[in-house]
Amino acid sequence: MTEIKRVAVIGAGTMGSGIAEACAKGGAETIVVELNADVLARSEANITGSLDKAVARGKATEADREGTLSRMRFSTSIDDLADRDLVIEAIIESEPAKVSLFQSLDRITPPSCILATNTSSIPIINLATATSRGDKVVGIHFFNPAQVQPLVEVVRALTTSDSTVSAAADFCTATLGKKVIHCGDRAGFIVNRLLVPYLLSAIRMLDSGLATARDIDDGMKGGCAHPMGPLELSDLVGLDTLKAVADVLHEEWNEPHYAAPPLLKRLVAARRLGRKTKAGFYDY
Ligand code: NAD
Fold first, then answer.
1. Which of 57, 59, 122, 136 is most buried, by the most CB atoms less than 10 A from its CB?
2. Is 153 a catalytic residue?
3. In sequence order, which residues have a C-beta less than 8 Å from that of residue 259 and are 6 or more positions away?
């Protein structure tokens, strides 16, 4: 089985940054590749800040901090991946962008390298067939924030080999310290398939005027012991991301509970995208 020691994370936005931090913390030599130089610089600063906080809180030592940073490299070029064992793609949720990236990764990385995607909704098989190594393409779906949340979904496409699934799952468990659940290549996997209709129902409830955002969120926190309410969680995920995932689920399953409600569409049109734009269902 491929031993995974050298990793690249492509895309250093909300998810990529946390995934890269988790990989380097776990001991993998990690290259972070991001198109946008400002986002890349912010990612490096965020990771350094997160490690500083861990040291200040006594959750990591100064040596852990230095070790993690020494295993990380930040780059705006994809060309430097010829010695990687695993690439985890975490770029924008656009199928053409991901297909084109997987075609490039197939050329640039060694044939033994596993190509993983963090996509929330794009069929893994569509990325696998963009490469000449469909057996080595797998979904590794992280949760936000990726350096903190304990779960990953390992997603097997029709072409993915047993050894790729095992290598990916072992890396997530042994290096990243995550709990792994396995599922097939159907839009939504396990968690979003159940979570997204719930978030959309909360948005419909708010739009109907039944209750305020605060009361809906307090209801689920107090009544069901959820750590966040559905509207707070939607703001954290990003309303554009939520709408994009809902659209793909709706297209895949053609069930009305996956259809993006009008209020969500209007907030996205207004660029009120949640925490990342400092306004969504709440102001930040
Ligand atoms: P994001 O918009 O915060 O970050 C994406 C980054 O990718 C941007 O910084 C962009 O500049 C960069 N990028 C775009 N094309 C690139 C390329 N060709 N090479 C290098 N960098 C490129 O998005 P995000 O929320 O981090 O989501 C990333 C992926 O993770 C998506 O597939 C999304 O569905 C998935 N995901 C998101 C969440 C979430 O809660 N946000 C959770 C699980 C999975």
1. 136
2. yes
3. 200, 246, 250
